[in-house]
Design brief:
Elements: H1 2-8, H2 12-34, E1 44-54, H3 64-71, E2 76-78, E3 84-93, H4 98-118, E4 123-125, H5 147-160, E5 164-169, E6 173-178, E7 190-196, H6 198-219, E8 224-225, E9 228-229, H7 235-242, H8 248-252, E10 259-260, H9 269-279, H10 292-297, H11 305-311, E11 315-316, E12 318-325, E13 328-335, H12 344-363, H13 374-387, E14 392-396, E15 404-408, H14 409-427, H15 432-448, H16 452-465, H17 470-487
Parallel strand pairs: 10-11
Antiparallel strand pairs: 1-3, 1-4, 1-7, 2-3, 5-6, 7-13, 8-9, 12-13, 14-15
């Protein structure tokens, strides 16, 4: 199907048919929810990590195909750019020593991939944006060799009708254009999945939205784009601009971008899928033969393929996921906020903090989303991306007096959110040793005001002061980062400088 569409393109009738199928899928989802057909609670979580390939010089290596052949594991797959890989960790049940088990699995998997990459003079780097990437690396020739990537690029570009403009004002300014979506490939992330029941979905999604700014403040790890120092977490503005189907005129009209924080708290998972259909034209109007309503009439469960495909082309930072396993449907919240890295320990600490905090906030009889305006949650996300661990965030005041105050992110975490995360991990029945170790990593980041982004920026400036030019300083910073990443100690312990 993909090859045929690449050759023939889509016609008006394809889009009209797809729109009708989306409406049928929405009706099918509504019936599944009304008939309570979803999987029972199983406390399942999952992790995906996007990775970069770099050479001994710290520069990107366009080798994901040959490296994947060497790895020869279904756990690893391509991502958008030839310098990208993704590793998928099998679902785990939250409880016990799950975070230590995850750390061991991820560390083993990435270590194996790194050894295989070394056979091709490459290495695996887990980082939000590889500092040594240049605009010349992010061109159409370096798009991964899969029909779906070429098709997505063609459709986004056709919807936009002109080249992409990348314009990010930070410590420095980046201003350039791109003829493709390949700059999106610079953004490598960690995705945290949590399976939830329909009744629980809205509370978990709202809680995840509320803490997205906090996650970024703690975990920022992408201060450089094309050699320019921009925001502490430059992935969100780069991703939005590199996938923006809107012309400048449509942006001025307030048309929503496909990379989207959202605009309201929700009451049901249906709200999000309905928004997707109402606001966003189809990019890939590929229709399945399934009639979801007839499938339901037979007492079976539809796959809702069109709805799932369309959902995958709306880039929410917390995305709803409809899944289907062995004939039983389920729902997940996919948290897409965090950058990759710096170490496996840091990734697992971020995950433990997220799962614990979201559990406590979703259980709270006075939900944070009833006390925090959605606009403040969105502003927190923006502030955290710009300023990282130095960000100041809006958060509801404790006690009955109410209101919202502006507080340093590190103080908010230390005084209020870490105890909530600990209580949430207790509610998941996480072993105290796991809880204390991984939340201790978050605590030390706050006390020392250090995360991946601050370390990268500080080390880069130290390299410049030593006499290196900008390009050499970025490469040296990348090489030092890779060395410390492999050693595995969390980033708050890393010495600043080139060693």
């Amino acid at each position: 199907m993909g090859e045929k569409v690449v050759a023939d393109g889509f016609g008006p009738s394809d889009r009209q048919h797809y729109r009708r199928k989306l409406q049928q899928c929405l009706a099918g989802l509504a019936r599944l929810l009304a008939e309570k057909r979803f999987d029972r609670p199983r406390n399942l979580m999952g992790v995906e990590i996007e990775l970069n390939l770099a050479g001994a010089d710290g520069l990107p290596r366009m080798l994901n195909g040959p490296v994947l052949e060497k790895i020869a594991s279904p756990d690893f797959q391509t991502e958008l750019g030839l310098f990208n890989l993704e590793v998928n960790i099998a679902p785990h049940q939250l409880g016990g020593r799950v975070f230590d088990r995850l750390a061991e699995e991820i560390g083993t998997g990435i270590g194996y991939a790194d050894r295989k990459a070394a056979e091709l003079d490459a290495s695996v780097v887990m980082i939000g944006i590889l500092p040594t990437l240049t605009q010349d690396d992010l061109v159409l020739e370096n798009l991964s060799a899969a029909d779906r990537y070429a098709l997505l690029n063609d459709q986004i570009l056709a919807a936009r009708g002109e080249n992409f403009t990348l314009d990010i004002h930070g410590v420095e300014r980046l201003l350039c254009t791109s003829e493709s979506i390949v700059p999106e490939a610079a953004c490598t992330s960690v995705q945290l999945h949590l399976q939830v029941t329909p009744a629980r979905f809205a509370s978990v999604w709202n809680a995840a939205q509320a803490v997205s700014g906090v996650q970024i403040a703690l975990g920022a790890n992408a201060p450089f784009v094309f050699g320019r120092e921009l925001w502490r977490e430059s992935r969100p503005p780069l991703f939005q601009q590199a996938t923006d189907t809107r012309s400048p005129e449509l942006q001025s009209q307030g048309v929503r971008p496909r990379t989207w924080f959202g605009e309201r708290w929700v009451d049901s998972v249906y709200d999000l899928f309905e928004e997707n259909v109402r606001y966003f034209p189809a990019l890939l109007p590929l229709c399945d033969e399934e009639d979801p309503l007839l499938v339901l009439d037979r007492g079976e469960v539809p796959r809702l393929q069109e709805l799932v495909l369309h959902n995958g082309t709306v880039y929410r930072w917390n995305r709803p996921v409809y899944g289907w396993v062995d004939g039983v449907p389920h729902l997940r919240v996919e948290n897409r906020v965090l950058p990759a890295g710096p170490t496996v320990t840091d990734v697992i600490a971020n995950a433990a903090f997220y799962y614990g905090l979201v559990r406590s906030l979703a259980d709270d009889p006075r939900p944070v989303w009833k006390r925090l305006p959605f606009e403040d949650a969105e502003a927190n996300f923006d502030a955290a991306c710009r300023h990282g661990i130095e960000a100041e965030l809006r958060w509801p005041r404790a006690g009955r007096a109410g209101g919202v105050a502006t507080v340093p992110a590190v103080r908010l975490v230390l005084d209020e959110l870490l105890p909530l995360a600990a209580a949430g991990l207790d509610a998941w029945h996480i072993e105290p040793a796991d809880r204390d170790f991984y939340l201790g990593v978050i605590e030390q980041r706050c006390l020392r005001r250090v995360n991946g982004a601050s370390w990268q920026a500080d080390t880069f400036h130290r390299a410049l002061e030593s006499g290196l030019d900008r390009e050499a300083a970025l490469a040296a910073t990348t090489r030092r980062y890779r060395t410390l990443m492999r050693a595995g100690a969390p980033v708050h312990t890393w010495p600043v400088g080139l060693g």
